[in-house]
Amino acid sequence: MQNKGLIKFFAILFALVSIYQLSFTFVSNKVKSDAKAFAGGDPAKEVKYLDSIGKEKVFSLGFTDFTFNEVKDKQINKGLDLEGGINVTLQISVKDILKGLSNNSKNPVFNKSLADATKNQQGNQTYLDAFFEAFEANSQGKEKLASPDIFANRSLQGDGGVTFQMTDAQVQKVIKRKVDESVESAFKVLRERIDKFGVTQPNIQKLGESGRILVELPGAKDIDRIKKLLQSTAQLEFWETYKVEEIGSFIMAANEALKKSEVAKVETKAVAKDSLSALLTDGKDSTATKKGNNPIIDKIVAQGGGPVLGLFSPKDTATINSYFKRPDIRILLSGDQRYAKFVWGKPTTIKDAKEKEVEVVELYALKGNRDNVASMGGGVVTDASDTFDQMGKPAVSMQMNNVGAKEWEELTGKAYTQKGFIAIVLDDIVYSAPGVSSGPIAGGRSEISGNFDVTETKDLANVLRAGKLPAAAEIIQSEVVGPSLGQEAIDNGTNSAVIGLLLVSLWMIIYYGKAGWYANIALAVNLLFMFGILSSLGAVLTLPGIAGIVLTMGTAVDANIIIYERAKEELRAGKSLDEAVKASYSWTGAMRSIVDANVTHILTGAVLFIFGSGPIKGFATTLLIGIVTSLFTSIFIARIFIDKNIAGKNDLSFVTNFSKNFFTNFHFDFLGIKKWTYLFSIVVTIVSIASIATHGFDQGVDFVGGRTFQVRFAKSMEPEQVKAELTAVFGSAEAKIFGKDDQLKITTKYKIQETGSAVDEEVNKMLYQALKKHYAADMTYDKFVKTFDGKKLGIVQASKVGPTVAEDIKTNAYWAVLGAMLIVGLYLVISFRKWQYSLGAIAAVAHDVIFVLGVYSLLWKYMPFGMEIDQHFIAAILTVIGYSMNDTVIVYDRVREFLDGKTKGSFSEIVNKSINSTMSRTINTSLTMILVLLIMFIFGGESIRGFIFAMLIGIIIGTYSSLFIATPVLVDTISKEEKHNVEVKHQEAQLS
Known about the structure:
Layout: H1 4-39, H2 43-52, E1 57-60, E2 65-67, H3 68-74, E3 77-78, H4 80-83, E4 85-92, H5 94-101, H6 108-120, H7 127-139, H8 168-195, E5 203-207, E6 212-218, H9 223-231, E7 236-240, H10 244-260, H11 275-281, E8 300-302, E9 310-312, H12 317-325, H13 327-330, E10 341-345, E11 348-351, E12 357-366, E13 376-377, E14 381-388, E15 394-400, H14 402-418, E16 422-426, E17 429-432, E18 445-448, H15 454-466, E19 473-481, H16 483-512, H17 514-537, E20 540-541, H18 543-556, H19 558-572, H20 577-584, H21 587-611, H22 615-647, H23 674-694, E21 698-699, H24 701-704, E22 706-712, H25 719-730, E23 734-738, E24 740-748, H26 757-771, H27 781-785, E25 794-801, H28 803-832, H29 835-859, E26 868-869, H30 871-900, H31 907-917, H32 919-939, H33 945-973, H34 976-991
Parallel strand pairs: 3-20, 10-17, 21-26
Antiparallel strand pairs: 1-2, 4-6, 4-19, 5-6, 7-13, 7-16, 8-9, 9-12, 10-12, 11-12, 14-15, 15-18, 16-17, 19-25, 22-24, 22-25, 23-24
């Protein structure tokens, strides 16, 4: 080996750098462990402790020191499935941005195009492109984007804006830039909110040009609070309000009109004696307010007064909203009241007549106008802080700029004169509606008070300081993982990794003896390099990532196996050990096969990295890093020890007494049985396609959208019973045993089309109410939903995938599989210079993919573990494609070598001999892979069991197809003339 000293130098240097990088992870974990012990299970105390030592020196190398913040930035970060926390994908509403840019245009073509874009948006197509397509189709050239009532308005004119003379293509460029600026603004606002929230190592990043923002908050516990914080647009407004006596006649008229309409329903609920009902009836039980005959009045559960029209149950708000939106009802409003805007207050709890606590919301009527613009906007607020009001209750204090201070003084002066009220409205929710009793308020300082706790005022002050979002931010995908589940994942991953490493190492020693020890040393160095690179890149380690590392152990020894098998052949041919090693490490020996095999693996890994997201990207990252480090250590590190043996004892044989006769006289007619293997594969393909067409798949929420909850109980549960209970609540639901029989995986599509933290919280509460009878009396909603260290019961993991994201994921999956096959097929055409090699490999891979899909379609209803078709499954399929190509390329390389050489026999005999000569490598590599995957399947944890099973089946069928499909297809597609020429050339070579 040339430049041996240089290779040793770089290997030692790389090892030292890797140890240096990993040292930060060890130190960081030690500090976090101390923080956890200090906090005693209190997450807020733990975060405070870590924040307090952020700038303290915790690691010294003698010549330099590092603070905890510096150490933390250099460690290997754990993904949510290992750390616990929440991961959400937010969709910034491009539709809202376009409405804002058009000044809420009333243009019918524009508004129809917005609606059509929402309805017709395709997978992976941005909303903006969908809008441009819809506008072009709807306008038919008669309407321009640069119309004055669309984008050529006053706010978009000026430098870099839209002018009347612009073409649609020119306007599109401007709008794309403006939308990008709005998304960037939203990104900055969200980042500022998150930075002040107080979780360690938050991650926020934009996802291309889709208008989507990924937010990862490892270790976060209060999920409902986080979702509210992220989705709050912080649209602060100040409105004048109507008083109950001003709007009462309309309520009376609306109630009478509804009584006569078809939607009025007889109800028998008692009517509370409140100020509104008293106003309408003068305290008498007249026909107008007879109990059970008033659509609006009967729903009032407590009296209001002043700006509060009445208190209603939250479940009735949607019904009341629908009443007030009806044209036949709104027409009853007279004068300026026709612009009235009916909104609700913040939910609060009161005691009813029976002293029972009930949740209610207050109804307000805001003094709207033709443009639906508030009396005063919240953009004038320059600062906000959490404080306490005169009664000692939590509140939020705000400071306004000079313009705002003047407007506030005028608005409060008007309210004082007219004895009116000013509603402080945030995101269309009234937080308070105080009157003004002491004259105009000067100085620009105001206060929001109401039914708050300290946490709420802190979050409210946070979002007001950070500013409002330019458009609504909707959670379209989310995943919540409890810390206890994360620790289980770490334990499962560690156990499977250790057992897998030991088994692979043991097999290499049993089969190759001393050479196996050298391969194991290379494997250990490979793992050190892998973790060092992960640490230096700041990569995130996930459970699939650990699976990728364990899988790398199986493939890491592949290059050593190829080299060792070639060396054994050279030794049997009579060469010395030195000559055999040099021949095996040459390009014409094992190197060409190793390069071709690993390039195909890298290509499929790259496709997986490009199209994958979250944990799947973590799997692809470790797989790609593992391929590169495996090549280096297998080729160079093991070679150093082999060369040392040659220079010393010179006793390497690459066999043991156990393995010395394995495959030495192996002769099997693979092509002779191709009719039977073709028949078997055709039958399997037909059965698989038929099953896919009839049985279908258990499609995960990744592909169809929905909500999934992993719920643990104190006892074993009957899935069918739970399914029935949840179906009664959600309309439709699925419940399956997930691992142990005290744990269920629950899936529902209830309100998956709707967004907002309120909907997510509603679903959580409905799930809790439906299942709480299965728990002890002390199981509260917070205990059931929130994540915390040591949590054993309730929701331990939850995920949500909106339908638009599901469509994108499905589209990505199709392209990933097809793209991987086409890219690798193209590489084989270039490498082997014959299209028949590529066709055979693609035929084998297509066969493998259909086989695995067929197995999942046939068995998903019967297997005791999850067999969902989701992102993890697609990752498994791509891994199978990579391995199948890898295995096929090794066989093809030997076929090419034998066809170009002097091997005796007919074309089929030459090909058969080439296949037989690779059997030791094929069986060894497959066996190590199967061993590793079996360990992952048994010990890796329930969440990746279906993922591992797909790879396990794929590796087995991939080995079969490389021998019985790829090579026969190659032989059958080569012309008779070319076969004849090969046979003639070989006969001439034998005679010469």
